[in-house]
């Protein structure tokens, strides 16, 4: 082999070895799509939507619609999901509605119906809504979505929804998702025990009351310093006058039931 050719082959071989050495020394790059990023402080603003019956003057008591929302900055998916839930609650009149209805459409339909009823009734219909932050533990944010619908009679119907949202994953979180696999039956046993404790704390509850207002499951929940709190609307665990009911399953009973990341020491 000619000397000049041998030198060229040797140089190429050494360059290849050096390149392979560099590849071995380079650290592998992390897959950033799998990295959990904690969301920092949230900022927000409140916006209000209001409509009144046609030809209503400032001095009159008229049928009306009023909805106030807390919009969380840089959280478009959350704001959209909360609005969708609010729209569903505002239409909770026992009839089917299009999921694409807007606040403007809901208000127009409600006030049109109210105007027809006012021809034979003095009742002024009211439709109110409110969505705001209630609590936060780590990246789990709880929004409270409240609506009130009055269409005559002794009182209106309030509806309250606790809406849990994972700020990092940008998705809604349901109660089964915060429980360890296979522990849901145990959780409901604990919740039923919490219901019995709550009944024991009330005055005027007898066997007939316990038989009428038996334990029910609820999908509305949130975490606080005491444990998991379940929310029940009116007419679920008691008469209207009792109002919404909250049951608390304490943390000491939840250590083997709730997923690790939601336990107090993980916050």
UniProtKB/TrEMBL annotation:
<dbReference type="Pfam" id="PF11738">
    <property type="entry name" value="DUF3298"/>
</dbReference>
<feature type="signal peptide">
    <location>
        <begin position="1"/>
        <end position="20"/>
    </location>
</feature>
<feature type="domain" description="DUF3298">
    <location>
        <begin position="180"/>
        <end position="251"/>
    </location>
</feature>
<dbReference type="InterPro" id="IPR021729">
    <property type="entry name" value="DUF3298"/>
</dbReference>
<dbReference type="InterPro" id="IPR037126">
    <property type="entry name" value="PdaC/RsiV-like_sf"/>
</dbReference>
<keyword id="KW-0732">Signal</keyword>
<protein>
    <recommendedName>
        <fullName>DUF3298 domain-containing protein</fullName>
    </recommendedName>
</protein>
């Amino acid at each position: 082999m000619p000397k000049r050719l041998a030198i060229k082959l040797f140089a190429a071989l050494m360059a290849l070895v050096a390149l392979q050495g560099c590849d071995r020394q380079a650290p592998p790059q992390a897959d950033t799509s799998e990295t959990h990023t904690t969301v920092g402080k949230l900022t927000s603003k409140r916006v209000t939507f209001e409509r009144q019956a046609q030809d209503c003057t400032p001095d009159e008591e008229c049928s009306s619609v009023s909805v106030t929302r807390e919009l969380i900055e840089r959280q478009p998916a959350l704001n959209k999901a909360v609005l969708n839930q609010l729209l569903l609650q505002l239409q909770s009149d026992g009839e089917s509605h299009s999921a694409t209805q807007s606040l403007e459409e809901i208000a127009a339909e409600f006030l049109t119906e109210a105007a027809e009823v006012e021809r034979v009734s003095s009742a002024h219909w009211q439709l109110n809504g409110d969505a705001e932050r209630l609590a936060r533990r780590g990246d789990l944010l709880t929004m409270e979505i409240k609506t009130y619908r009055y269409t005559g009679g002794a009182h209106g119907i309030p509806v309250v929804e606790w809406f849990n949202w994972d700020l990092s994953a940008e998705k809604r979180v349901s109660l089964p998702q915060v429980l360890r696999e296979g522990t849901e039956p145990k959780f409901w046993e604990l919740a039923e025990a919490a219901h019995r404790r709550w009944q024991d704390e009330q005055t005027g509850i007898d066997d007939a009351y316990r038989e009428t207002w038996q334990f029910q499951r609820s999908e509305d929940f949130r975490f606080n310093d005491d444990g998991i709190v379940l929310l029940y609307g009116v007419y679920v665990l008691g008469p209207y006058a009792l109002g919404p009911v909250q049951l608390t399953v304490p943390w000491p009973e939840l250590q083997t039931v709730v997923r690790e990341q939601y336990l107090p020491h993980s916050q």
